[in-house]
Amino acid sequence: MNLFDVYPINPITITKAKGSYVWDDQGEQYLDLYGGHAVISIGHTHPHWVKRIEEQLNKIAFYSNSIKIPLQEELAAKLGKVSGKEDYQLFLCNSGAEANENALKLASFHNGRKKIVAFNKAFHGRTSLAVSATDNKNYIAPVNETDNVIFLPFNDEAALEACFKKQGDEISSVIIEGIQGVGGINVADVSFLKKIRSLCDQYGAVYIADSVQCGYGRSGKFFSHDFAGVNADIYSMAKGMGNGFPIGSIIIAPHIKPKHFQLGTTFGGNHLACVAALAVLEVMEEEKLLGNAVMMGKYLREELEKIEEIENVRGRGLMIGFDVPEEIKDLKKNLLMNHKIFTGEAKPNVIRLLPSLGLKKRDAEMFIDAVKEEIEVMKVN
Ligand SMILES: Cc1ncc(COP(=O)(O)O)c(C=O)c1O
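^ thats the input. predicted complex w/ pyridoxal-5'-phosphate below
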């Protein structure tokens, strides 16, 4: 049987990983500033994470949600404390798309409405409703086409206000990434997020903060939406939550009440996933990783801004993007081939940095040196 060929891939086989480094099957070492789509939050194979999972594996890995799983309550309490949203309610699932699917659905159950406001360049996942709210026609199958999603320009307060004025009573939810990831590292303005909050309050819509990529400490705050100083009604999470162990979740504000059987899952909240997520939060606190993300992010952005050949350095914490002009368009490829450094990309010409939140200064320096060296070489050739 062949694999269903859905992505172009790098011809590299990674067999080992530790911290911010991975090794291929030839023993070659790579600096990983991509974390496999922003997933590695506390570092590859972190010893505390490995130990927690190993210990749990020897007790019980899975049982369904038909029984009590105290680890879920432990995770809810810890997540509430670390995120500062202690009065929210936790629903566990397995991926980012699933988290957004549940968020959008729950919002609709809550206010009985159908319309969703999403934004240009948004990416919310591949499942039916999440993909309908994703601004890429290539991902939307005919069966997912719907009139229920309204796309508006990102950070355009006037357009948002006009939309609510016209049909505010029909809008169930507004879904927005605090920092667009796949869309190219576009930071939502503080005033825009505040405007979403006030319009949702005024019209009874649900503010959904897609924090799948920009959440879990990546921005230097637990949620990048926290920069706006307002609370969303639902936050969706995944990626960094399990540091590579598949887990997703939504946290739900107290005014949204649960009803039996509206949401459900077989695998969500299983014992192994819960300990993986607990281990991540424990390491985040112990190693003060949010502070490190702020510090290393500032260093990287400042150094990148000094390199005149690259443009429009942006982002928060360790979610950084910059534009690569045509003259140095091979920068990403050359960083990988010549310097053994993994970075991410966004179309058409953005390099995305999404390293472990434990990134060390010497590794950040090595990256900056490699960028400068590579640009010099490309200029000569
Ligand atoms: C902002 C955002 N939301 C949702 C998703 C979907 O997550 P998953 O691939 O875990 O379904 C992604 C994945 O890249 C994402 O970046």
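The radius of gyration is 21 Å.
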